[in-house]
Predict the structure.
Amino acid sequence: MKLELHLIPKSCFYENLRLALGPRWEGVSDKFKASKNYTCEICGYHGNKNLIHAHEHWEWDDEKHTQTLTKVECVCNICHAVMHWGQSHTRGCNMDELCTHAAKINGCTKKEFMNHVEESFATWRIRADQKWIVDFGAFKSYLRG
Ligand SMILES: [Zn+2]
């Protein structure tokens, strides 16, 4: 699927580039967004710059229990809200609208996408019981500056 959920295990909620960089994040994230011409890499949205976000793309190794930052993606607010499904639900987003968007982008039915949502939460619940090592990967250099 092109647009998938990215559910962060609770123990890693506060370990990310945005928080690590503090006020510097704005400049760094804007560089990423500018390099993609403020265009959503998932759905192609291009328009209001304020609706474009920099998304930290993490990958999980379920054997080594490491969470690694592999890239920073340029995404629109709707795709970003789909990725952080749990948070969006808590914030009172229109989940049906998010589901419709995701199904369209992925070329699947809403039911198929909701199966992906369920599977993602099942994996997230398993990961919640693990202790994770957070690795900033190639982005470690940003932490030094
Ligand atoms: Zn998008």
